Amino acid sequence: MLFDSCRRAVQALQQTPEDDRTFDFEQEVRVAVRVAIGWRVLRREVSGDGRSTGETLLAYDVLASLPAHHADVLWAVGVEGEPATHYAPGRLHASRDALVDAYLWRALRRTGTVETRGDHLSYLTAASYVRYELTARRRADVRAHLDGCTLCRILAAELAVPGASLPSQLNRAVTAGRRAPGLGWARRVGGEAGRADRRLSRPPHRP
Questions:
Q1: Which of 32, 42, 86, 130 could pair with 160 in a Cys bridge, judged by C-beta atoms 3.0 to 4.6 Å apart?
Q2: Rg of the Cα atoms in the chain
Q3: Residue 138's pLDDT band (boundaries 50, 70, 90)?
Q4: Can you give the pTM of this predicted structure?
């Protein structure tokens, strides 16, 4: 797993412009390890076609699609429970914005432009809903839509409480993986995965 993660990091490095200051090799490896372990845990712990299963898989898929400099922060704070104070506020805010953008892009990619799609909420509508800025009738319409739309439900949760979509959907499955030898998560258990992650742990942010 660690070898494959390093290989992916090398491929990412080869495709990165020389003047890109966001690239960090260790960070790329760290995210690749998390993505790989997360998928192994989800395949074992998540099953069926219920509401929580769809939300869990979508949240994982979107998080895994983010650039490493955003995903690294979100895995650490949103999924693994690391204190947000270990990161600069601006960096954490930018990563959470990137997560919201990824949910919105997923909706756009599936259904067309904002002007023509009618089966997903726009950013403004979702934001107005969580801020209680809609009329009673419009709010009821949005609530009915959220009951049947996994993507918009996660987007609304993310807008209401930044990072909320990650622990609620991923942490349950990831926590279950900590109990299995060799499939440990983060720095809490032993086994190959746990040892690899400990070797790749980062120092706290220093302002």
A1: 130
A2: 18
A3: very high
A4: 0.69
